[in-house]
Amino acid sequence: MNSYGLCIVDNFIGNKIGDRILQEVKNIHLGGGMQDGELVCPTPGKNKSIRGDKITWVGGNEQGCENIGYLLTRMDKLIMHANGRLGNYKITWRHKAMVACYPGNGTGYVKHVDNPNGDGRCVTCIYYLNKNWNAKEHGGILRIFPEGKSYVADIEPLFDRLLLFWSDRRNPHEVQPSYAQRYAITVWYFDSEERAAAKRRFRDLTGSAGQESSAS
Predict the structure, then answer these.
(1) For the chain, which ranges sit under pLDDT 50?
(2) Burial bucket for residue 73 (CB in 10 Å: 0-12, 13-18, 19+)
(3) Between vectors from CA 16 to CA 36 and to CA 184, what angle results, nearest 5°?
(4) What gap in Å lies between CA 215 and CA 209, rounded to an integer?
(5) How far apart are CA 192 and CA 90, in angstroms?
(6) How far apart are CA 145 and CA 184, in angstroms?
(7) Are 30 and 64 in contact (CB under 8 A)?
(8) In the prediction, which pLDDT does 53 show?
(9) Of 73, 126, 150, 171, which has the fewest Cβ atoms less than 10 A away?
(10) Radius of gyration, CA atoms only, the chain
(11) How far is CA 214 from the centre of its chain?
(12) What is the pTM of this model?
């Protein structure tokens, strides 16, 4: 991470538990538990051309999500083991997991940055669940454009692969069009100081807006 801004761990959790996680994700998807992925600044009529996934949020303690919960515990242990050696970040918290499916109709997610405005997210972790994935046939590559580098990093969304990268402007990335169902679970870890500063900015902003509303 410190050298290249990203890290790949293959065979992260093993086929047996990986299969169970995949089945839980499929149950959520086929049971109608996912909605269209949202944009921070929606554009009427254009959202799906920018972002074409279906998502839901999972804490890991829901019924039928026990193996997803185990995956999140393993992710947490990895991050906490590396905490203090991941740049200058002090990681104390993460968001719920975003469980996502690109339905295979040629949609993707255009180039973007997870945390462009200092909201506290410092490490993005993505766990992939796609068996027998062939990028030439199925597409769906995650392409990272490391800031200031002359190269790109193309990551195939292979089964039981864990990808980690910095969440800020150092790693703009895109999901290229997928032509088969593509499943992934994404977790964001937060730097405590940056997150606290973001919350203060939000309080100041909403407080100022409330005062202006009262004055008018």
Answers:
(1) 42, 213-216
(2) exposed
(3) 20
(4) 10
(5) 6
(6) 20
(7) no
(8) 94
(9) 150
(10) 18
(11) 39
(12) 0.91
